[in-house]
Write a structure and sequence with these properties.
Layout lengths: L3 H9 L2 H16 L5 H8 L3 H13 L3 E3 L5 E3 L1 H31 L2 E8 L2 E8 L14 E3 L4 H6 L5 H11 L9 H14 L2 E3 L7 E9 L5 E10 L5 H21 L5
Antiparallel strand pairs: 1-2, 3-4, 3-8, 4-5, 6-7, 7-8
Length: 258
Amino acid sequence: MTNSADKEEAKKALPSQTLLRGLDVIEAVSNQALSISDIAKKTGITYSTAHRIVSVLLQRHYLKQDGTKGYSLGRKVLELGFQAFHQTTLTRVAHPFLEQLARDTLDTVHLARIETDSVIYLDKVSSQRSVEISSRIGGRKPLISTGVGKALILDWSETEWAALYQRSGAVFQEKMTQEQWLALMRGYALGGYSFDLGEDALSIRCVAAPVRDGSRKIVAAVSVSSMLEYMDSERMQALIPRVKSAAAKISAELGMQM
């Protein structure tokens, strides 16, 4: 039965407070507070509240039950930790190459990674021309319609490409059939690069290439983007080796053997 202290605490527990308490519980467990009694004592919350929060964190794999000893950090915390470390390392390693590519091309250069059916921009070096690409670090764009998005999925199977088209094909600025999409992706996969031919914004063109880690897994993509007036088809073709070279240099720094 819930006692009066729990009822009073529940009244005061705004969503932000609940989030903070959940974070307090994770931090307490990281400091070897293994039992719910220990967690309650270290965080200053009641036993029943600690039990409720621990139950949710167990369901989401932020905590795990460590046999009869109590609780320890779960796989989700480890996954996020590795992901954060990898992203920080990736951005730091890649930035000098992005800057060089931007100097060489005068255009906007991006570094992005995949998250479900979107790309997230990890870094951006702005154009030296009098144009601005409306992207920002931390911003999202559709995976299917961007140059970096296509570069990130070059290793996918045709079945996976088709499934993405079914989920996201409606975002194209101009209608494209599934077979047209698959034909594009086959060509990009063979060439090891990708284009944005106005699928995301009619006035923007982009050339992109994948970045791979030591296991040859695609972990990011690099792109050069500009307005159509600066990026005709001939220039896009000429940019392919430059963008692929920058991506290869970043990949080498991440341990990929050529």
